[in-house]
Design brief:
- The structure is a single chain.
- This protein is α+β, with helices and mostly antiparallel strands.
- The protein has helices at residues 12-23, 38-47, 68-78, 90-119, 127-147, 161-176, 183-194, 196-205; strands at 3-7, 29-32, 55-58, 63-66.
- The radius of gyration is 17 Å and the shape is globular.
- Bound molecules: glutathione.
Length: 229
């Protein structure tokens, strides 16, 4: 097989790449990395010394592609399918990229900060940083609640790279800092969860949910009807 993905089924940044692969039924060899296992971690770091996944290996083109957004750009450029992740029109393209960055910077990162803090020894925890991360999530929710009231997908009327980022970011952020009654956000997360690609990612992650380090475990949201495309 030409493509191999190094990933873990529970890892939110890996979900971005998996959604893109599943959207277009792109064939790839899955390679689950267990960073808790010395050999698995060492084998992975020999490929990508930063030790962060997802990483896509393209044997036919001799490329090692790291960083979830770049993996998606790469798939869109070299293994395109029916779902195009970067729109062709320049105005739509910068919007899709901007919202991709938004979800990584202002949801994924604070969510990760809260989760990773819980994995530290008690004396090394950072309650102030966790409070800041929670405040960041709440202000992102308030902004998104207004934004998502007027469109079905993150960057407009079509599913793009931004929705690949939004899906795991909102799913895990809602677990660590529930957005409760926010109706546009709940509706959007429901649409994402009903999308076949993300539904499959969640089904594959579910056996690992008990490993999530916070008391409140992730739960697959009830799906909502798809918008007309
Ligand atoms: N900017 C990177 C972030 C990747 C990242 O943080 N991945 C997490 C999993 S969600 C990871 O590899 N964590 C393992 C670790 O930090 O040891 C991307 O977009 O791919």
């Amino acid at each position: 097989m030409e493509l191999m993905l190094y990933y873990h089924p529970l890892a939110s940044f890996c979900h971005k790449a998996l959604i893109a692969l599943y959207e277009n039924a792109t064939p790839f060899e899955p390679n689950i990395v267990d960073l808790g296992d010395e050999k698995s971690a060492a084998d992975f770091k020999a490929i990508w010394p930063m030790g962060k996944f997802p990483v896509l290996l393209d044997k036919s083109r001799g490329c090692t592609v790291a960083e979830s957004s770049i993996v998606i750009e790469y798939l869109d450029a070299f293994y395109p399918g029916e779902t195009r992740f970067i729109p062709v029109a320049p105005d739509d393209a910068w919007r899709a990229r901007m919202w991709d960055r938004f979800f990584d910077e202002y949801l994924e990162k604070p969510m990760q900060h809260i989760v990773v803090d819980r994995l530290r020894p008690e004396a090394k925890r950072d309650p102030f940083g966790v409070d800041q991360a929670r405040a960041q999530l709440r202000s992102s929710y308030a902004f998104l609640e207004r934004e998502m009231a007027t469109r079905p997908w993150a960057a407009g009327d079509i599913f793009t790279i931004a929705d690949c980022s939004a899906a795991p970011a909102l799913f895990y952020a809602n677990t660590v800092e529930p957005f409760g009654e926010a109706s546009s956000l709940t509706g959007y997360l429901g649409r994402l969860a009903a999308r076949a690609s993300f539904a499959r990612v969640l089904r594959e992650a579910e056996p690992y949910f008990s490993n999530f380090p916070l008391e409140r475990k992730p739960q697959i949201p009830r799906g909502a009807p798809q918008p007309a495309e």
